[in-house]
Specification:
61% of the residues lie in helices and 0% in strands. It is mainly α. The longest helix has 24 residues.
Length: 342
């Protein structure tokens, strides 16, 4: 018996009956021989971690554009926090931690530079719109590995595709592991964005809605603890009652949604960051238009996409992969005059 098979046997014995065991994966688009050591979901996790698009998350903005402090979240640190929260919830329920980790680590790979501002601009500029979760699947299946994709399992791709959004209850992953990541993403970003906003002086503790704070907790750590425990216990209750889905209890979810709405109104779409958001949108917009007019300056890989799928798709793929720093560098290179001494 191989080490992988020993691990797979342990999964069968230790996991909740509603969890996704590795040997029952739907599989990959291209069939592969099983790894000697790693289960299929462990392989997926490693492929994501070693991908170029994952490494670029360290220079992609979470909320604050080009923050000077060392302690503000980036897409990469957000991803790590989501993974940690999701694994704790998954372990408490008895789900597949490797599947959860793979989905968590890949869930934000499709995000554009400059936080949600970049996504908004591409959504406005592209004929068919733009959505970061759909773009994640494109990156992982068509752009990574020089266009070959990472050949991930269907469970991982489905979890990444369906991690976004909160209001549409019908749009959820078909695995409980994927549903855990969806909740963990919201638990993570609502709370750490409050933390970052207070650090930046954009919010003050006393401004947070008291009705929600009294339910969830008075600080970031307490709120995460409340939400994680509630998600575990409420999901276990669902399973006992034959309702196979991940969820929070009514009052706790209502409080989380309330805090999320508060953040959208006061931070994500609020007036305090409007000037910086508009600057970021302007930069990304100009870079986009530049390559629409100068497609021959695109890297060869993206020119190939232009030839196969059209100009807008090739430019969108190139732009969406840029980190904040690289987008700024490109803008400066194309638009800012250089000092020339005659």
């Amino acid at each position: 018996m191989s080490i992988r098979e020993i691990i797979e046997e342990k999964e069968k014995k230790s996991m909740n009956i509603c969890g996704t065991i590795s040997v029952k994966t739907i599989g990959r688009e291209i069939k592969e021989e099983p790894d000697e050591i790693r289960t299929s979901f462990m392989v997926d996790r490693d492929r994501i971690v070693h991908s170029k698009s994952f490494r670029r998350l360290k220079h992609k903005t979470q909320v604050f554009i080009k923050p000077f402090g060392d302690h503000y979240r980036t897409r990469l640190t957000h991803t790590v926090e989501v993974s940690q929260i999701a694994r704790t919830i998954g372990k408490g329920i008895g789900l597949n931690e490797d599947l959860i980790e793979a989905i968590s680590l890949g869930h934000d790979i499709g995000h554009v530079a400059f936080a949600h501002n970049g996504e908004e601009i591409l959504n406005e500029l592209l004929p068919n719109g733009f959505s970061h979760n759909i773009n994640s699947i494109r990156v992982l299946t068509k752009l990574e590995n020089q266009g070959k994709g990472l050949n991930l399992t269907k469970e991982v791709l489905d979890g990444i595709l369906n991690h976004s959004g909160f209001s549409n209850k019908n749009k959820r992953a078909f695995t409980l592991e994927g549903q855990v990541v969806k909740y963990s993403d919201k638990i993570a970003y609502v709370n750490h964005d409050i933390d970052d906003s207070i650090r930046a002086g954009i919010l003050h503790e006393e401004e947070l809605p008291k009705d929600y704070i009294e339910i969830l907790g008075t600080n970031c750590s307490n709120r995460v603890d409340t939400l994680v425990k509630d998600c575990i216990y409420n999901t276990l209750k669902n399973i006992e009652e034959g309702k196979i889905e991940v969820s929070l209890s009514k009052d706790i979810e209502s409080a989380l949604l309330g805090l999320r709405s508060f953040m959208f109104k006061n931070v994500y779409s609020g007036s305090k960051l409007k000037v910086e958001r508009n600057k970021a949108k302007f930069i990304l917009e100009q870079v986009f238009f530049y390559f629409l007019k100068n497609e021959k300056e695109l890297p060869q890989f993206y020119r190939g996409i232009v030839n196969r799928e059209g100009l807008y798709q090739g430019v969108a793929d190139y732009i969406s992969g840029m980190s904040d720093d690289y987008c700024l560098l490109t803008f400066n290179e194309k638009y800012v005059p250089k000092l020339v001494v005659y």
